[in-house]
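Pvc16 N-terminal domain-containing protein
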Amino acid sequence: MIHEVDEGLRRLLGESGLEASGVEIVFDAPTRDWAARRSAPTVCVFLYDIREDATRRGSGAGEVYDENGRLVARRTPPRWFELTYLVTAWASRPQDEHRLLSQVLACLVATDTLPARLLTGTLAELGLTVGLDTAGAGLDAPAASDVWSALGGELKASLGVLVRAPLAGVSEAVAPPVTEGLAVRSAPRHGDGDAAGRRLRYTEVGDPGPEGFAGPRERPPAPARRRRRGDRRP
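Tokens:
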């Protein structure tokens, strides 16, 4: 799921014209050594915090059907996670970095969700909304200064981006549907001669079975009435 969110963000930023203008979009950690090797204008989207949103955790299991409408698996509900990114721009001059960062900001704040056309893999299969919060005041993640300190670099202008995405549940295959009938025959009782036995079969839903499939059920003889004391003999 994480790499699918990365791909969605890369496609979203690519549509803003960054890639067309020769700007690289990478997901590396912006360490001091990494920054020293940069030679082209770059937008770095660094993932540094992952947390589960426990308030959205569900229970039970959903059913998965094939193209013929048959139950093939049961899947646990998806679990939601918050992915926090540190977005920075890198160029030869601060003015160029600010221009790139402004272009990124305009692109990200224009949408609250990643468009469905940009989703791939399990995110596309689930069909759920992937939320996007850019530079929000409620980002519950380590401060940017702490991140830069851990990376060993100098503090730099950056954007905090929070993505809320679902992780697909675990699927368990169910037993295949019954495709062959199960026939049961009862042996004829003594004295019935060649009377046909009663035949039963399990069939699929909606299959009425062949005509004349089951013979008529014979009603058993009524039990004899028990005589009580005081009854007169006939």
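The mean pLDDT is 81.
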